[in-house]
Description:
- The chain is 72% helix and 2% strand.
- The chain is mainly alpha-helical.
- It folds into two domains: 1-103, no CATH class; 104-176, Arc Repressor Mutant, subunit A (Orthogonal Bundle).
- The chain has a two-stranded antiparallel sheet with strand order 1-2.
Amino acid sequence: MSSPYLPASIPCADTAIAPVDGLYRDHRSWLFGWLRRKLGCEHRAEDLAQDVFVRVIQGRKAVRVNEARALLTTIAKGLVVDHQRHAALEYAYLAYLATVPEAYAPSPETQAEQLQSLMQLDRLLDGLPPKARSAFLLSQLDGLTYPEIAQRLGVSLSSVQQYMVRAMSACYVAFYE
């Protein structure tokens, strides 16, 4: 039976290529079990299993039958890492909020907006090249000057300036456009 949420099989002369509906039918069960063991949460495992297949569909790449499990596992591992990183960020934010006197604590709506912005910034930084991400964090979190960042990263001052322009431009686009 075909899922209404997945595209129908794409006719293909190469029988070694797995259609998405067959891929889902054949691998969803073990993938869900693998994710449940990794995460310890049935609901989150269900969400991430679905996200894995969404990524396969969005990738629009042919998936060879003999490589399907490896591809799905690779995608799932990346999603688990993202989930754990976001959970750690949320935990750190909530731990910080616990230290703020109640009179100064933001409203639940503001807390949710701030947490969403932190998650968006985390995804944005994850998409930057490593040195641009490091330069941005050293500047914004550690308060280092550009010459100090250049020395710490072992790059030229102009490289640090380019990294910061790239990071700040990405932030601007993400938050204002």
